[in-house]
Amino acid sequence: MKMRMFVLAALIGLAVSPLMAGTSSVSGKYVEARTAEVFTGGCIMGSEAETVGKQAVLAWRVDRGSFHGVTLDGLSVVAAVAGDTNLGIQEIGGARANVRSAVYVDERANPAQRIALVAMASELSRGLVSNVVNVTPAPIEYADQDHAIHVAAGQVALDVNKHVEHDPSCGAMQWFHPLALVSNAEVGMTEQHVFNGTGLGTKWSNPNRRSAFFGTFAY
User: Could you read off the pLDDT of 110-147 as tens digits, one per residue?
Assistant: First the structure.
């Protein structure tokens, strides 16, 4: 109950909270994958735009810095998000999805850091990480190597190959942008994308798709 109260305070941004009054300067690595191709042909997008892409995993690893005055050096946060329509549909003329989120915070984080990690995920995702149904402290693996990224946290597993073939067939192009603020974003090939948790009303496994973005963030 206490943890849920902390999280709610973070998400609604209480002006009286000392945490909310602090400054932010934070940077690190970011990766995401959704259940839809982000680079594909118009013939495929036209048939799938409103029926796929309703789920996503977003993950941040802080290299250094603080958020709202709370130091987050070396900590990670992962969010699984499920919406009622394609999470990027507003980019091609649709209404923004209504979402629910399950968040995994680094088990090494203290209570103030857990609040800050959830608030950071919400802010950097431009509010996509919202309507949080549960916050789970967990060991988080975030390995960013030369050719691949691996993330594991609780019931989430994500593997992204940094090399992707941009097949021009069917007029293939990039239809969507990253779900969160990210610098030097690149498209990746999602080799594993799994959420088996509870609370979102759905579970998914969506591998082998050009559905990932990765890069760095600084805020």
Answer: 999 999 999 999 999 999 999 999 999 999 999 999 99
The residue whose two tokens read 């995993």 is: 57
| Residue pair 36/53 in contact by the 8 Å Cβ criterion | yes
